[in-house]
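step 3/5: co-fold with aspartic acid
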Amino acid sequence: VTLSARPVLVIQAGATLDGTAPAAGAQATALDRIFRDTSELLAGGAAAVAAVVAAVTAMEADPQFNAGLGSKLQADGAARLSAAVMDGTAGRFGAVVNVQRIHHPTRLALQLLAREDRVLDATGADRLADECREPRQDPVTPTRLAQWRERARPTTGTVGAVARDVAGRLAAATSTGGRGGETVGRVSDSCTVAGNYADNLSAISCTGVGEEIVEAAVAARLAAWVGAGIPLRTACQRMEQELRARHRRCGFIAVDSAGTWAAHWTTAVMAYRGEGPEGRLVGWPDPLSR
Ligand code: ASP
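step 4/5: write tokens
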């Protein structure tokens, strides 16, 4: 274990299909703040898994993102939330699928990492929430209800984070309200290894059209490529090319054990933040402060 690794964080707040972001200014400010706060945690020695959960929890708490409070609604007007956390060092994956009346499904997914049964459906997640005394809160906001009534397609997607901590450990967390207007009970990619994956060589979080992400097994295959010796940047470019060739709509963020990170998308854009050259904040929408 190297205790001197440079901590690296990348966060994403969804691929958008049409290139617009509602309240782009406010979203940019929120992303800047969440990126800075979580970076501080990592610099202070927080474990990668704690940092990705902190970043995703902060985005779940902000109603402008499609996760936790302010999640998109399924066809019947109910919010069903899914989230996954993967600890790359332990090689453990925990997830909850379509849980209701909760703001932080990611905290439940984190709890599951220590258990024998690590992926729970709504029934199991409900019981887990009671057991963990996770507050029961309605994540449906008036804005999402209005969008659902108008059958509008909101443009922001899933949220996620990948990190390398000072000990060189990697982790990924992803949380979503889903696509919006989907069939009741439809399951997102975010609570699968296609949408969220980490091992000791790379960590990946995806956003976009869940079915297309699952069909390409994006996160798990990327990790396998890096594991087979393909450099992260090359692996990510290859995945983007493959996704484009097959008209699959997906965005992803990734980090490797050397601290190299990447953000790619085949959609119009993807909201994200990472640290660029000379510690400059980079991403979309444009960071307000540099
Ligand atoms: N991946 C999510 C899903 O298909 C949606 C999104 O990222 O916008 O459920």
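step 5/5: annotate
The mean pLDDT is 94.
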